[in-house]
Design goal:
It is built from 7 helices and 34 strands. By secondary structure, it is mostly beta strands. The strands form 6 sheets. Strands 2, 3, 4, 5, 6, 9, 10, 11, 13 and 14 form a 10-stranded antiparallel beta sheet that branches. Strands 16, 17, 18, 19, 21 and 22 form a 6-stranded antiparallel beta sheet that branches. The chain has a 5-stranded antiparallel beta sheet with strand order 1-30-29-32-33, with no helix packed on it.
Length: 554
Amino acid sequence: MSLVKRNRESISPAMLAELDLPTVPEAINQRLRQVYAELPEGESLRRRCLPLWLRNTFVTASSLAAVFLLLFGVNAINPALAESLPLVGGIFQNINGLRIYGQYSSRNFDENQQRISQMAVPAGESQVEIPAGGLFEKPAKASLGEVYYDGSFVFAGVELEIDASEDRLTTLHRGGYDVLINGEPQVYQDEEGSANLYQYQESGFVDMSGFWWERAENGHYVTQRAFRVPEQFQEADSLDISLCFSAIDGDKGNVNSTGFRLDFTAEKSPVTLREIDCAGLEMGGVRLVRAYGTPAATYIELEYPDELYKNPATTATFEDGLRIGSYGYIGTSHAEPPADGIAREVVVLAGLREDEERKVVWRLFDKNGSSQWEAVFLLDFQNGTAELGSPEDVKPAPEYDYACGKEAVRALLPGEYAVEKLHVNQDKPMLYIMTGDSAERELRVELYQEEKLAIRTYSGQYVNWSPDAYYWEYGDNGIWDDAHTHAMYMLFLPDLYTQIDLTRPVTVKVFDKGSSELLCQQEISLIESRPEAPLCSSPHPEELEGEAVESQAE
């Protein structure tokens, strides 16, 4: 398995809710917001071509959580998701806005987590006291919340009580990190003594656990452990499970380096298994081995000659280009070629709605290959069938835009506020508010549809950070408007793509954060800037540039 292939998952972390809780220091937060907002539209943050030592650093370094927290510490609230949490069970119902990294733009993933939460059951008494493992470390207590087990997939919510102030803690995958099923260890341990979660195992075990412990309230953190049950245990009525943890990291090093485990028995819940008839389907040397789904997850397994593709990258979306949401991936490593010469890959995606009619499009692209999609499979889980696809079946998700137009910028008066741009895609949905003032105010910005609040976010303190802002519109490389220089707020809205109907008008309200004075209220309509994708050979078509967008000044 190539390093590109092994590390291709997105590393976009969760956004923190702006409550009366400690957050990233404001100066750092605002500066990093600015840096992220200024990244080019086509730059997604994927772990590409990382050397092994660096990949291990990402997994094990004590600074990991702090790095991501600083890079993406945007304080945003989405009240519509208050009960839609990426963690199972009742102990998480008081958490607002926690997001699993990389999944914030998948509505299907949100819905899937809700289904799991509704079907999870109490795990019984399972908790452990964790002594401090070293100087300056803190003792802790871990307890299991609710558990979901459907015969193929297990999800468990875990809570940690510890005297820590970090917004996020990190699970390290050192020796001791494991999952035991009926006493048998499942996680592959490499020669360096660390858990390798990407190594293909013939047993079919896939670790789908999160890296993070998110703070629910002061002194309380939560995480999700999840995995695909290996073949020998599939459909068992019950499983004796041990979730084993190694060190837990904070911003400044180990919070607690003492390993611990939580033991419980998972009882199988009756669910519908939707199996695809693969029928030996093969394209470009890639063979579809198995594909099935439960309400919790979607499993796809494939294989191909190891020497066939030198730098392969694979992905799966719905047929309209929208993301499904990914839980985990394992594959054959090219560093250790398989004895039989066959590379194998397994991907676990979020589960699908029972009435989901969209097909799943799985595809492979070799960056050292033909500059085309080498293999495309169309999976219909509603009818249990699969068919060969073509590059034309690989479509990017639609993008939507609003631009106020240059005349609206020129007409802006001192003291006025207006929506300048709204750019909505799956990777980087951005809202731009312009003002004739110097942008010294802190703003509260709310988006409504049909008079219902969909998104709420805050600007922070942008004190003249864009005093020389220029108006930019799709189709232009940037237009300096000599007739009017204005200040501009740039707001990253991670849930925008999934939480509003992009085909309908959106009302944007801008308030002074402190006084709640209404500064601007505007209804805008979005234009689909890339309605239907042309034939695309890129492994990440959602990153292509959009078409020109007309101005729509309201």
